[in-house]
Amino acid sequence: QSAFAGHLRSPSAAGRPYDVPARPAKIYRELLFNNITGFIDACFPVAKSLFPESRWRALCRSFFRDWPSHTPYFSRIPEQFVRYVQARHAGLRVPAYLPELLHYEWLELEADTAADKSAGSADSRRLTLNPSVRYARYQWPVHRIGATYRPRKPRQTVLLVHRNAGHEVKFMEINEITAQLLDVLAEGPQTAQDALKVLAKRLGHANPDALQIHGRQLLAGFIQQGIIVGKLA
Fold it and tell me: 10-residue block means of pLDDT along the chain (233 residues)?
């Protein structure tokens, strides 16, 4: 079984075991690799579009061959692919922004499949994040990358992804101060006033009262969009 598994992962490097017929071996090779690449292709359409087909398939093959995935769940394959490129990108001869682009595309899957666990009550004055909310700080403007735009220089970018009440995945660029406010709320349910007080302290803000005013406006918008659950005190 070990020899056959090695052959399935890398037919060119590990020959077919003598007691395994050629036709079943070919079926297994194609079935396993195509299943893996199917999940990868579906999760990362933008990244895939940046490569010639043969180059993308070679990257998928190297992942299939070299990365020791430890999950039995097909839905976790894209996450493992992200981890592979993050860990090995220096030797893969891929664009410097690719690890972050893959991570950003994977966040869509994470938001889409997030469990509908309790996020608090919409009538509560203690605010919580929608359980589907994902946000990340990137060195590259990955949300703009596509066939007509490939960045040459880094630009720090903070991006938020969430699933709304209509079960649609939405994307938003936010600034660092907004991200820090989400950091505060991610620590646990808090009133708007308390969360903004913590934020003001972390920022060393010169005018906490002004931050309360502008922060509450931001929170109100996030509540309306379903990013935050609860209501303003």
Answer: 65 66 71 89 97 96 87 87 94 95 97 78 85 97 95 97 93 97 95 96 92 95 95 83
Tokens linked to 30:
């194609």
| CA–CA distance, 140 with 163 (Å, rounded to integer) | 23
Cα three-residue angle 226-160-41, rounded to 5 degrees = 110
For 205, how many CA atoms within 13 A lie in the half-sphere containing its CB? 18
The angle formed by the CA atoms of residues 83, 62 and 69, to the nearest 5 degrees, is 45
Report pTM.
Answer: 0.88
Tell how strand 228-229 and strand 128-129 pair up. Answer: antiparallel
Residue 215: both structure tokens together: 């922060």
Q: Which two tokens stand for residue 121?
A: 């009550």
Our CA angle for 17, 67, 109, nearest 5°, is 125
- For the chain, give the number of residues: 233
Q: What residue type is 14 in one-letter code?
A: A
Q: If you ran DSSP here, which 8-state letter would residue 66 be given?
A: H
